[in-house]
Amino acid sequence: MKNLIFFLLTALFVIYAIACQGGEREAEIPETRARAVPDKAQESIPEIRITSPAFVHEGMIPARYTCDGEDICPELVWKNVPAETKSLAMICDDPDAPGGTWVHCVAYNISPADTCISKEQIAAGKECVMGKNSWGNYQYGGPCPPSGTHRYFFKIYALDKLLELEPGATKEEVMNAMEGHILAMGELMGMYQRRG
């Protein structure tokens, strides 16, 4: 009888321990998202230098480029694109959004001869193919945080191929299509907080 009680108590303890560990593992599972480049591999990829006449890296984005202004894409200028690049892709997103990363702009099959992208190109989908942002639009949507200061990452990818995607591809579809084809990448981060 004592052996049976001991066995049952041991079994209950093991089940409890497994349940507790399982809960911790579940809490540690990161948000599922497409990654064109594993985190460790990013360190070995050549860097594209991105700047903007509108704001400096880690600086505040002027209201003109947000929902509080003209809601236009700031001009982005880049250099150090590898000579063998066949196309470029640009993604702008906000990882600080309350419901998870909010995608503000997706553009791909940008000519590798281009050294910048302007608000006119994004607005017209000129010399690039526009993907779908989190609003469901095929255009740039400016920063419009519900509260606090958010970070906005403008990322450029140099690719060894054109992406065989129709207009309106999502960020995840573009990231998946880029996997294994990234020659260089870079990012420019700006911040914005609404006034009043």
Distance between the termini: 72 Å
Name of the CATH architecture of the largest domain: Alpha-Beta Complex
Strand order of the largest sheet: 2-9-8-4-5-7
Put simply, the count of helices is 4
Write down the Rg: 22 Å
Largest sheet data: 6 strands, mixed
The CATH superfamily label of the largest domain reads: PEBP-like
Named CATH topology of the largest domain: Phosphatidylethanolamine-binding Protein
Number of strands: 9
Strand proportion: 25-35%
Can you identify the CATH class of the largest domain? Alpha Beta
Q: Number of domains in the coordinates?
A: 2
Instruction: List unreliable stretches of 5+ residues.
Output: 4-35
Q: What is the N-to-C order of secondary-structure elements (H for helix, E for strand)?
A: HHEEEEEEHEEHE
- The average pLDDT value, as a whole number, equals 82
Task: Report the structural category.
Answer: alpha+beta
Q: Helix content range of the residues, please?
A: 10-25%
Shape: globular
Description of the molecule:
The chain is of the alpha+beta class and 196 residues long. The protein has two domains: 1-30; 39-192, PEBP-like (Phosphatidylethanolamine-binding Protein). 23% of the residues lie in helices and 26% in strands. It has helices spanning 2-28, 39-42, 119-124, 171-178; strands at 49-51, 59-60, 76-79, 87-94, 102-110, 116-117, 129-130, 150-159, 182-192.
Key terms:
alpha+beta; 196 residues; Phosphatidylethanolamine-binding Protein; 3-stranded antiparallel sheet
Question: What topology does this entry show?
Answer:
Layout: H1 2-28, H2 39-42, E1 49-51, E2 59-60, E3 76-79, E4 87-94, E5 102-110, E6 116-117, H3 119-124, E7 129-130, E8 150-159, H4 171-178, E9 182-192
Parallel strand pairs: 2-9
Antiparallel strand pairs: 1-3, 3-6, 4-5, 4-8, 5-7, 8-9
